[in-house]
Design goal:
Layout lengths: L4 H18 L9 E8 L5 E9 L4 E6 L6 E8 L4 E5 L9 E3 L8 E9 L4 E2 L3 E2 L1
Antiparallel strand pairs: 1-2, 2-3, 3-6, 4-5, 4-7, 7-8, 7-9
């Protein structure tokens, strides 16, 4: 006798997975990150990273290398204004962030930079 419950269970499982994917928070689709590499021994380690989250409104900077250089994320808003966020505590645990954007004036582009005497930055990226 065929097992008729198996197709029903498989369909229920498929719907549960699809429902989880469809219910994912929209803000996660707006997160963007940039990383700078080339620090410490032979330049093979990540210096830090920065990015944009919360639907293009929040900018963060994280210094991950204890090399004595700081880390900065620069940004431009849709209106043309801009600024930056420096990781205030260096490579110690924790990052720095601020919310310069709004729904009407979001962050449009950004880049991450290690603050060496001549900044080492990623290309400008779309937020």
């Amino acid at each position: 006798m065929p097992n008729r419950k198996l197709p029903t269970l498989a369909a229920a499982a498929a719907l549960a997975v699809c429902g989880t994917v469809l219910a994912a928070p929209e803000a996660s689709a707006h997160d963007a990150i940039a990383e700078v590499y080339g620090c410490q021994y032979q330049g093979q380690f990540r210096c830090g990273y920065g990015g944009v989250t919360n639907s293009h409104t929040r900018v963060h900077a994280c210094d991950t290398a204890g090399d004595g250089y700081g880390f900065r994320t620069q940004f431009l808003l849709r209106s043309g204004g801009g600024g930056y966020v420096d990781d205030a505590n260096g490579s110690s645990s924790g990052c720095s962030a601020k919310v310069p954007g709004t729904a009407a004036n979001p962050v449009s582009i950004f880049r991450a930079c290690e603050k060496k005497p001549v900044f080492v930055c990623t290309d400008w990226l779309t937020a």
